[in-house]
User: Fold DUF3421 domain-containing protein from Zophobas morio.
Amino acid sequence: MIRFKLLLATTLFLSYICCTCGYRYFYWREYTGTIPSDAIVAGRDISGKDLYIGQAYVKNGGWQVVPIYQGIKEAIAVLNGPKKTDKYIKILCGEQNHLRWVVTTAKDFHEDMEDKVGVIGGHEDGWGETHIGRISYEGETRIGKVNSFRTGKANFYFHDRGTERDIGDNYLFEVLYYNDDYVIEPRSLH
Assistant:
C-alpha cells in the first residue's frame, strides 16, 4: 500500500511538473481500447481510418513508441523484433495544433531538431529517450521510434508485418515536435 501511495504521489508530482513547464498541450493517457476525443491523430491507416500515437511498456526494454489503431486494444512495439501487448499502453493526447512534424534523415536528425523540442515517445532501457517518428509506407502512415542516442545515426524503426524495420540512414521520415505558436512575447520596458 505504501508503494502504491508513493507511486501515485510521484505520478501526480510529475504530472504537475509537466503541466507547469510549458508542455501542457500534450500528455499521455492510459489506453483501454477506446480512443479519447483529444487523442493526437498521426495519420491514416490502409483503410483511411485515423491512426494514433501510443507507447507500450516492454519488460526489460522500457516504454516503446507504438501505433494505435481504432478498434484494436493491443499494440506491437519493436525492440529486437516485434513485441505484442495489451497491457501498459498509453495514448498521446492534447491539442493537435501545438504539435508539428519535421522531415529529416538518420544523419540529419540532430541538426534538424537543434532548435525544436522533440516529443519524447519513450525510453529504451540502457540507452535513453526515443522520439516519435512516422513515414508513409505502402499506402499508410507507419508510426515508430527514433533512436537518437548517437549523433548522425538517429534510426527510425517501425513494425512491418511481423518484423522490425529500420529504413536506413538516407531515407526521409518525420519526427514529432512541440511548437507553441501562441507564445506571447514580453513587452520591452523601454
Observations:
- The longest strand covers residues 128-137.
